[in-house]
Amino acid sequence: MSFESELKRLEEITLKLKSEETGLEESLKLYEEASALVKKLTATLEDVKRRVEIVSQDGSVEEVDEA
Description:
Layout: H1 3-18, H2 24-51, E1 53-55, E2 61-63
Antiparallel strand pairs: 1-2
C-alpha cells in the first residue's frame, strides 16, 4: 500500500474506533491494525526526513542532517 492509502486506512480505523457501534473484540483488532500502521507510517516519514534536501541561497544542494 502507498503512504496515502495507509494514512487513509488509519483515518478509517480512527472513525470506527470512535463509533459506539464497534464492539470490544473488533475495537481490539482495529487498534492492533492501527498500531502497526502508525509504526510503518512513522518509519516512512523518518526515511523521507533523512532524504529531504535543502537548496541553499547559493544554489547548492545540502542534505538535511538529523538533529
